[in-house]
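User: Last request for today: this protein with L-homoserine, please.
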Amino acid sequence: MAKIRIGILGFGTVGGGVYKTLRNFDNVEIKKILVRDITKPRNISPEDKSLLTDKPDEIITNPEIDVVVELMGGIEPAGNYIKTAIEHGKHIVTANKELLAKQGKDLFEFAEKYNKVILYEAAIAGGIPVIMPVKTILAGNKITKIQAILNGTTNYILTKMDKDGADYSAVLKEAQEMGYAEADPTSDVEGFDAAYKITTLATIAFGKRVHIENVYREGISKIKLDDIKAANDLGHKIKLIALATIDEQGRADVRVHPMLVPENLTLAHIDYVTNAVEISGHPIGKIVLSGPGAGEFPTASSVVGDILAIAAEFGKTDYILPMMRCNHSQEAIPVDIKDTVNKYYLSFTAPNTQGIIGKLGTLCAEHNISLQSIMQKGVKDDNTANIVVITELCREEDIRNVIAEFKECTLNSLIRVAI
Ligand code: NAP
Ligand code: HSE
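Assistant: Here's the final one, the structure of the complex with L-homoserine:
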């Protein structure tokens, strides 16, 4: 059997997992592995040490390599290495969601010009097969909504805070030690990573290009244990949700922010590093794909699957994997968060004075907002009380106006509620 020859850029968490997994396949030959620091001790067998290099040209311009597997992360030099590799006739497999979200259009057009494919199953939801299903077996659907948990690190943190009352910083450290977090975990906790993923996923699912600049984003760093407890009391779990919807006119509302998820929804029960992608469309209805969203081996599963997909067709046709190519010429029309309609969880610190709840009710009524529930929790020593509210569906702009006018109280948290 002819072997496909690959070069791997990066030998960290994912690169290491791919190296170990590929030992089981005799139709794939690793020719070289690029690292930044060649002197670092590595978990690599002695006979393979000579595969390591710190010279990118030994991979990206090497005529003996068919596929370049980019597992370095970041924009540069990863982007330039991929383009050089394509110019030198290589297909690409990558796990780099940031690069795809920021430069996907340019990279896919570039690859098409050279008749090369870029596969990226590992970039979205780690080990869950989602790109291949959306591009192939779900191709007959008009997908109109995706509601997903796309970041393992933040789901791990929120779950540990919820179940064990764990401290945010300590759990983040655990997630880093387990290889879930990005090199700079700000990307995880502030929602950038999930925003990159939903940008690409929404683009392929809707068949219209979504731009990262139009994706509204909030992370989990401001979520307090008090919010998690209050959410539980109200029958909800707090999750970092990536949401994308598109209407008949092509207006795409794409965003990432924490949400209160009612316990009767599947996403409320997706815990720890598990991710889940709920896809709604016609004729399928609704499906949920779930599995490990980060870590060495789940991510390696997706990377190796992509390598094997290329290997299966390599040398047998002039145009491999036509359904996996990305060439969306249409643009989605962005929707501003102010114009979206949501339910809200609001938590205020209020002075313990008569009529304060009445004032909130009046302000909400003046802005066409109905309240689903309102709860005052005791009175503290400083004569303040905590008021927690859940609204019915209302416009974001209206809720922002109420908050601005409710000057007697301090807003502690605003979290949207999943429906
Ligand atoms: P990582 O552990 O930080 O590994 C990065 C590797 O790339 C290291 O081996 C590093 O070399 C090498 N590298 C980085 N910059 C380089 C440069 N300029 N020149 C040469 N080598 C360079 O990262 P990771 O967690 O494996 O993630 C890799 C990619 O997969 C990222 O795009 C990430 O977003 C994505 N991803 C990660 C996961 C996950 O669970 N970790 C899941 C899905 C996708 P040294 O070893 O010498 O430092
Ligand atoms: N840092 C990412 C996460 C890795 O935690 O989900 C998987 O893309």
